[in-house]
Amino acid sequence: MKSVFCASICFALVFPFMLSAQSNPSLAGLWAAYRDGVKVADCEIIQNGDTLEFVIKRDPAEKSRGRFLNAATVLAADWNQQASVRQDGSRLEWGNSYWIRTGWMLAGQWAAYRDGIKVADCEIIQSGTTLEFVIKRNPAERSRGRFLDAAMVMADEWKQQAKVLQDGRRLEWGNSYWIRTIAGAQTGKESAGPTGAGGTGLTLGGQWAAFRDGVKVADCEIIQSGATLEFVIKRNPAERSRGRIISANTVIADDWKQQATIRQDGRHLDWGNSYWIRADK
């Protein structure tokens, strides 16, 4: 009875069932700062769950640690400033200035689909808002590209535009679409990892830590064989669930009946009201 009670309490700490809670938007990506309608700086937001880092790209760069106070407000702690989140996470109101999203981090490996069938492996190389699209055929097909705005990219040589959807994880080209398989750095270098994880290339196996409300509540582990996963919460006794990768951005813990969104290049799992952060990379 004791172990069952402990397991229930521990599970509730890591996977609280608060379906009415409003999740925080994804703010990670490229931004521009404005004052009185005039652009004053390029900016970037780095996000890991509820934890943020704000960067104003000056020389030297100005940085502040930050976090969500709630779904509609963020705090830049080192600047002692709060901002209201507006327009579905595309605008931040800082008071006497505001930031507007200019782009997402799209660099990495992608897969192209038509009528639900995968037709090619692809890659996007990114430097700021400048892009290069690559379709991995023989020979490779390439096009220089750019953001037209935060929701639209242009492949100049192909004379094609695509809508940016799902927080930068899907590109709609009209009669085809690309889905992100592995996120990469802005330099365009490939992320390490096998390509056999359900066709996604995701590598999630390793040590993790579970957090709730910014507080660590457990050490965890993911054991991976291709797209098959085992989630382990290191309690006494350990809590385990069989699981699997069901898409490039989603995993499911079958025994816990929980799904998680994969973020931050496979280093963050968002379970809703709790999240896991990779601890060994």
What global shape is seen? flat
What number of domains?
3
DSSP summary, beta strand count: 24
| Rg, Å, rounded | 20 Å
Poorly predicted residue ranges:
1-9, 16-21, 185-199
Please characterize this protein's 3D structure.
Helices cover about 5% and strands about 55% of the residues. It is mostly beta strands. Strand 13 and strand 14 (about 160-165) form a beta hairpin. It is flat. Residues about 1-10, about 15-20 and about 185-200 have low confidence and may be disordered.
In short:
The chain is mostly beta strands and 281 residues long.
Walk me through the topology:
Blueprint: H1 2-14, E1 29-35, E2 38-48, E3 51-56, E4 62-70, E5 73-76, E6 81-86, E7 91-93, E8 98-103, E9 108-114, E10 117-127, E11 130-135, E12 141-149, E13 152-155, E14 160-165, E15 170-172, E16 177-183, E17 206-212, E18 215-225, E19 228-233, E20 239-247, E21 250-253, E22 258-263, E23 268-270, E24 275-278
Antiparallel strand pairs: 1-2, 1-8, 2-3, 3-4, 4-5, 5-6, 6-7, 7-8, 9-10, 9-16, 10-11, 11-12, 12-13, 13-14, 14-15, 15-16, 17-18, 17-24, 18-19, 19-20, 20-21, 21-22, 22-23, 23-24
